[in-house]
Amino acid sequence: MIQVGLQHFLMVGALLFCLGILCVLTRRNAVAVLIGIELMLNAAGLNFIAFARHQGDLAGGSLLVLFVIVLAAAEAAVALALILAFRRQVRTLDVDQIDSLKG
Amino acid sequence: MHGHETSQVIESFNLLWLIPFLPLLGAVSNGLAGHWLQKRFGEKAVHTIAVGLPWLSFLVAVVAFFKLRSLPEGALLLDRLWTWVAVGQFHVELAFGMDALSAMMALIVTFVGSLIHVYSIGYMHGDESYFRFFTYLNLFMFAMLTLVLGDNLLLMFVGWEGVGLCSYLLIGFWYRDLNNARAGMKAFVVNRIGDFGFLVGFFILFWGLGGSWGEGGYHLGGQASLAFRELPALVAPLADKLLWGVPLATLVGIFFFVGATGKSAQIPLYVWLPDAMAGPTPVSALIHAATMVTAGVYMVARMNFLYVLSPAAMTVVALTGAATALFAATIGCLQYDIKKVLAYSTVSQLGYMFIGVGVGAFWAGSYHLLTHAFFKACLFLGAGSVILSMHHEQDMRKMGGLGRVMPLTRWTYWVACVAIAGFPIASGFFSKDEILWRAFDSAALLVPGWVPWLLGFVAAGLTSFYMFRSYFMTFTGETVKVHGHEPEEQRPVVTGVLVMLAIGAVMLAFVGLPHLWMHAPPALEHFLAPVFAAAEELPRAGHGHGTEWGLMLASLGVAFLGLGIAWWLYRGRKNPLPDRLRQAFPRLHRVVYNKYYVDEIYQATAVRGFLGLSRMNAWFDVHIIDGLVNGAGTFTRALAWIDGAIDTYLVDGAVNLVADSIRAAGARLRRIQTGRLPAYLGGLLLGGVVLVVISRILIDIYG
Amino acid sequence: MKLSLADLLFYAVAVATLATAAYAVFTRNIVRAVFSLLGTFFGMAILYGMLSADFVAVVQVLVYVGGILVLLLFAVMLTANIESARLSSPAAGWSWGLLAAVATGIILLPLALEAPWLQRELDVAGPGTATIGRSLLGNMLLPFEAVSVVLLGVVIGAVVVARLRRGGQDGEVQR
Question: pTM for the complete prediction?
Answer without folding.
Answer: 0.64
